[in-house]
Structure formats: structure tokens, C-alpha cells
Task: structure prediction
Amino acid sequence: MQARSTKLMKAPKRKARAKTGVRMPRAERREQILTHAADFFAEYGLTGQTRELATACGISQRLLYRFFPTKAALQAEVYARTILGPFEGAWLGNLTDRKLPIKQRLTDFYGNYYDKVLTRRWLRLFLYSSLAEGDMAPNYISAILVQLLETIVDEACFELKLEPPGEQDFKRELGWNLHGTISHLAIRRHIYHGPHTVPHARMIKAHVTSFVAGLPVVLEESNPPNGE
Result:
């Protein structure tokens, strides 16, 4: 993934200049800035300059700062809307609905997660934040992923009549086995531009099946005997 902050889009700049000076309601202008900012930081990284962002929005840098006094404040709002926003709270509830088999619950969840969260823009923002040692990725992991990873393992263990790992860190690592695999599927296709010959829905189902089938063996071989 390459940041292109030194070669910012010339075509969008020309369009932006054509719109400079157009008045718009405050709420609409704020929405426009946030939409452009999410695209801008996804393309050029979190080090992209606000001057260039303002140009892309067709406004002055001074007006940009009237809506967001600092770059950090703007990025915090982009995080809340673009990183946190797509995750639907109902998904966690659906994962614990034991009327459905765990494989169906996981397959349904990751089908939605792949389509609505693991988009090209979301992945690039998340990866750029990690590379820049920003707060977006760690905050997302602590706010959402920790609970998700534990839920995946707990629900699979319940259906399989297995004792969940007592060590929380190990439980989360087991959850990462599935979550990381599906996230990397999206990275390969959206970031690495890998081949799309096999539909992602088919691969999600295959990875879920592999995770559920392998969990009993993993737990048996990974848990130390009593007393050790």
C-alpha cells in the first residue's frame, strides 16, 4: 500500500477550484468535509495535509478549521464515522442467538462484516493508522474486536460442548485465527489486488467450517494438563 501524499490528485483539484465559493448549509458542508476526509486519508494516509484536503473539498483551509479546529479533531470524527460506524451492534446479538447453528451464525456475520466493514476505504484507513502508530486501529480493537473475538470462541465452545479457555489472551488469539483469516482475505482482494476467481462468500464459509471443525483439536492440544 503506497501513500501518495506528494502527488495529490490533480483532477480532483481542478474540480474543487470550480466549486470554490459555493455556499452550502453548515450541516451539508460538514458532511461534505467528512466524506472527502475519509476518502482523502484512505488514499494518502493520515499524514496528508489539510491544505490539500481543503482544496479537494473546494474550500479554504481557514474554513476547514472553522468546522474542525485541529487535524486530530477531524481524524477523530473520521474514525467514529468510518471505522466504528459500519459495525452494527445487532451483529453481536445475532452471534449469541443459539437458535441457529454456530456455523450459520459465523457465516452470516462474516458475510455482512466483509461487505459492510472490510471495504477498500476502511482497510486503507485502518492500515494507515497502524503504520502511523495512530489511535484508530488500537481503539477499534479495544472497543469492538476484543468482545467479538471472545464471543466467537465462547459460542463455538458452547455448541461443541467444550470448555472455553480460561486464559483470556489465549481465547482472543483463537478468535483471531478466524477473524484474521477473513480480514486478510479482504486485504488480498482490496489492497493486494489478488485474484477474485473464488467468490468471497464461498471462502468465508470454508474458513468458518475449518475454524469450527478444528477448535476441539486445538483446545485439546493447546491446553496444558492439570497441575502444569
The chain has two domains: 10-82, 86-222. The domain at 10-82 is CATH 1.10.10.60 (Arc Repressor Mutant, subunit A).
